[in-house]
């Protein structure tokens, strides 16, 4: 079994979410040690009670009591998925196998149409980039600043987050799942446990090797935000750049 399929440790189900949306730039907090229900062969698919052909807020899109809803670790993964996909003040409620109800609340809104409709390839790649950006293999909750060309984020920076850590992209919903990153300009500054630069094992890979830099391989954002982040990496146009 790969690291991707490991049970989540370090995150308490139902724990508070410290995030905000400020003028299209987004502050968030990571703490997802791994993505439950994912292994090297299968992505997040119908085996996990999840179906991209139907809305998350429908029974056919996210089933009660099975797959990710069957375990605390799976529900933690769903909490991050919904927070990434749906906007603030939107939520869905699902039940576990015992009939207990859990409410998952949106925050970042990178795929708002998935609430009631299907999640196409672009939707899948945005959700994937967002979830991979929140992985922390140490289970430590660290404040982050996210930028991208995604309309709910934008390119503006925040002086409280001075270090460009790296960029994330991929697709968790295909087989085999794709989880990629590249190093930002300050990936080895202000290093935090479980993140890029800390030397800990991570489920995502750098297509250009462990020291591959985003600046050397990705397309920068347009003027006047060319130093904020990247709008394309390794064939992916759904890229999220993290500052810490």
* pLDDT < 50 stretches: 1-25
Shape: globular
Can you summarize the main beta sheet? 6 strands, antiparallel
- CA radius of gyration is 17 Å
Compute the separation of the termini in Å: 31 Å
Tally of individual helices: 3
Instruction: Tell me what portion of residues adopts beta-strand conformation.
Output: 15-25%
Describe this structure in words.
The chain is an alpha+beta fold. The protein has one domain (3-243). It has three helices and ten strands, in the order ββαββαβββαβββ. The strands form three sheets. A six-stranded antiparallel beta sheet has the order 1-2-5-10-6-7. Strands 3-4 form a two-stranded antiparallel ribbon. β6 and β7 form a beta hairpin. α1 (72-85) packs across α2.
Secondary structure blueprint with pairings:
Blueprint lengths: L19 E3 L2 E6 L41 H14 L5 E5 L5 E5 L15 H13 L8 E6 L16 E8 L6 E6 L30 H4 E3 L9 E4 L6 E4 L1
Helix pairs in contact: 1-2
List key phrases describing it:
244 residues; alpha+beta; six-stranded antiparallel beta sheet; two-stranded antiparallel sheet; disordered N terminus
The gist of it:
This protein has three helices and ten strands, in the order E-E-H-E-E-H-E-E-E-H-E-E-E. It has helices at 72-85, 121-133, 214-217; strands at residues 20-22, 25-30, 91-95, 101-105, 142-147, 164-171, 178-183, 218-220, 230-233, 240-243.
């Amino acid at each position: 079994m790969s690291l991707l399929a490991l049970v989540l440790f370090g995150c308490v189900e139902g724990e508070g979410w410290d995030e905000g949306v400020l003028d299209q730039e987004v502050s968030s907090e990571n703490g997802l040690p791994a993505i439950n229900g994912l292994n090297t062969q299968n992505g997040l698919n119908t085996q996990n009670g999840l179906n991209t052909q139907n809305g998350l807020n429908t029974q056919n899109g996210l089933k009660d009591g099975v797959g990710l809803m069957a375990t605390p670790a799976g529900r933690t993964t769903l909490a991050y998925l919904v927070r990434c996909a749906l906007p603030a003040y939107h939520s869905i409620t699902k039940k576990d196998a015992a009939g207990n109800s859990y409410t998952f609340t949106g925050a970042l809104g990178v795929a708002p149409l998935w609430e009631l409709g299907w999640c196409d390839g672009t939707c899948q790649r945005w959700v994937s980039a967002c979830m991979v950006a929140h992985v922390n293999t140490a289970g430590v909750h660290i404040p982050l600043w996210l930028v991208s060309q995604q309309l709910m984020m934008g390119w503006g920076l925040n002086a409280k987050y001075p270090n460009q850590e790296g960029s994330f992209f991929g697709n968790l919903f295909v087989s085999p799942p794709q989880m990629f990153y590249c190093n930002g300009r300050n990936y080895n500054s202000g290093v935090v446990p479980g993140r890029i630069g800390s030397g800990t094992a991570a489920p995502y890979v750098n297509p250009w090797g462990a020291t591959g830099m985003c600046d050397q391989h990705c397309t920068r954002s347009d003027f006047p935000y060319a130093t904020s982040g990247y709008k394309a990496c390794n064939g992916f146009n759904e890229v999220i750049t993290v500052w810490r």
